Amino acid sequence: MDIQTIRKDFPILNQQVNGHQLVYLDNAATSQKPTSVIQTMVDYYERYNSNVHRGVHTLGTLATDRYEEAREKIRRFIHAKSDKEIIYTTGTTQSLNLIAYGYGLARLGKGDEIVISPMEHHANLIPWQQVAQKTGAVLRYFPMEEDGTLALEKVRETISNKTKIVSVTEVSNVLGTVNPVKEIAKIAHECGAIMVVDGAQSTPHMAVDVQALDADFFVFSGHKMLGPTGIGILYGKQELLEAMEPIETGGEMIDEVGFQSATWAELPWKLEAGTPHIAGAIGLGAAIDYLQQIGMDQIQSYEESLTNTAYELLSQIDGVTLYGPGKRSGLVSFNINGVHPHDVSTALDSEGIAVRAGHHCAQPLMSCLKCESTVRASFYFYNSEDEIEALAKGIKETKEFFGHVV
């Protein structure tokens, strides 16, 4: 991979922040966008801005074609069987809410169990809390090992014939843990449960095959994988999506409407009420084109090298605590002893280094780690080893500065 050539495709990276060359290491929050994605969306607004599925005029037809072509690109990207299994949403959060309320609410009852992990993002936690409270179901958690991984023997012990839904992130947004979701899905299915996979942090960084995983539902966001904000995907096995009732109704998702009742359109439109984020969908299609041009296997291999370098360099700094397993995907979360994470982030920002500090929408996990927040540096394929070294240098300088202050 020619990183310097790749970086030229991302105009935002070519700037200075606080007098220093920007080092953008907040990719788990959102990724930057290549010129091809930006121009694809500009092209939509400048040349064929129109609503989809409604008009037979030239612009409307072209917009519809591009919108549905993007759906097909997404289908191929994650290896779904049919484009009917690809539902456009606003992002991972809405996708998980659709599953919780559109599928879980009608099928869970008193004593049924939902099982998740302690490392879930709030988007894969709060909807299940709410559905459990409304239905009388019980929300349970897999035990987590000290290194932030899940042991399959304990997964087997936790899932039972009472378990109806298992929902797990494929990659933790705090620890970088890569969970064995394929194996967890097999255990869940043996007990008659369905498997939901949060792919928000995995889909941008590794090849995804929803059929090989045997995921019943799989969700992800466009903005973490070079696409725009406000667009995401809910994949579901067709028979499960067919059985779901829409939780949003109105235009676009109907077949026939009378004065007292209505019938729904076929998939995928049944679950896509209202005017969609057309430019976002087309932009996500362009993002997938870019990722596939480089190759997901190449991206994963390069990022593993970057992440290993970061982990090794930070491990050598006295007073730095790292969280999560040694083998991880795309990020490092850490704290400097005696320095608040927000102060660390502010100090690094003064050097042009963008990282994230906070609980990362994972407060239960923070309690497991016995801290309130961490600093997170997260990487993408346009990051370089020089930037990893700049991070390590910035951490050392921050530690020294606050050591003198204290």
From TrEMBL:
<protein>
    <recommendedName>
        <fullName>cysteine desulfurase</fullName>
        <ecNumber>2.8.1.7</ecNumber>
    </recommendedName>
</protein>
<dbReference type="InterPro" id="IPR015422">
    <property type="entry name" value="PyrdxlP-dep_Trfase_small"/>
</dbReference>
<dbReference type="InterPro" id="IPR015421">
    <property type="entry name" value="PyrdxlP-dep_Trfase_major"/>
</dbReference>
<keyword id="KW-0808">Transferase</keyword>
<feature type="domain" description="Aminotransferase class V">
    <location>
        <begin position="23"/>
        <end position="391"/>
    </location>
</feature>
<comment type="similarity">
    <text>Belongs to the class-V pyridoxal-phosphate-dependent aminotransferase family. Csd subfamily.</text>
</comment>
<dbReference type="InterPro" id="IPR000192">
    <property type="entry name" value="Aminotrans_V_dom"/>
</dbReference>
<dbReference type="GO" id="GO:0030170">
    <property type="term" value="F:pyridoxal phosphate binding"/>
</dbReference>
<keyword id="KW-0663">Pyridoxal phosphate</keyword>
<dbReference type="GO" id="GO:0031071">
    <property type="term" value="F:cysteine desulfurase activity"/>
</dbReference>
<dbReference type="InterPro" id="IPR010970">
    <property type="entry name" value="Cys_dSase_SufS"/>
</dbReference>
<dbReference type="GO" id="GO:0006534">
    <property type="term" value="P:cysteine metabolic process"/>
</dbReference>
<dbReference type="Pfam" id="PF00266">
    <property type="entry name" value="Aminotran_5"/>
</dbReference>
<dbReference type="InterPro" id="IPR016454">
    <property type="entry name" value="Cysteine_dSase"/>
</dbReference>
<dbReference type="InterPro" id="IPR015424">
    <property type="entry name" value="PyrdxlP-dep_Trfase"/>
</dbReference>
